[in-house]
Amino acid sequence: MTIKHELQTIISAFFNIDINRITNWRKLNGGNHVRSFCVNSEKYVIRKFRQPHQQTAITERAAYTALEPLGVTDEVLYLDDTGIKITRFIEGRHLTFSERDQEESINLLRNVHERAPVIPYFYDIFGNIEYWVSLCKDQNSQNLKIFRGYQEEINRIKYKLDSMNIKAVLCHGDPCVIGNILRLKDGTIRIIDWEYAGMADPFLDLALASVHQGIDKINPFKSLEWYLRRNPTDDEKFRLKAYVTLGAFELAVWQINNLNAQEFQEWLTPSLEE
Length: 274
Fold this sequence. Notes:
alpha+beta
């Protein structure tokens, strides 16, 4: 069964319509299988994960439920236990790397961090790193050896962060300005796709926004100043640097089977010049 037929079968069952009534089928950009479509002249989006994480759908459902009163997300109509999701299409545009758009996205994240209720799931970046490492197909690969060379440093970072007793808030986990944040026609912005959400240090979102889009495009230290609305302390700078490093590790081991040793090493060591 092709992806198209699989997704259209799910849409057909959800809306209780014949597959032939699904129109305007279009592939959207992203790391997952994402398509837009129309039913009865209404536009929707369906998503299927290419490589789902354990309990991702459960966590995403909890995040959307918690955030519904805030009105800052897209509208979920269907979300099954495998992570296949149908949402109402948002008419708008993605944000850019402009300073205005970046600062607005930081304000949105702060708003979520301050107002969202607690959910019973955590974004455990250390656990995530080990999970993706466990999926390495070749236990004798050079990439795995390179990563294990950083294990002592990872342990030191974890010990330091644990000692700081940071209050966890609901984090998005992938707050990409040009991917997951949209500006509506009325000028307001929304943040979509909460599959990586979880309770964590709020600085994690700032770090991952930079790592996932490139710290040459999203300066994490500038984001921190916008977020705090003041100059950060040394401890706050350490927390941000720690999560940028850990975010790079997480992104690299997610691709551990697909990168050669040189590429893998480059992904593990982002520049952190302030």
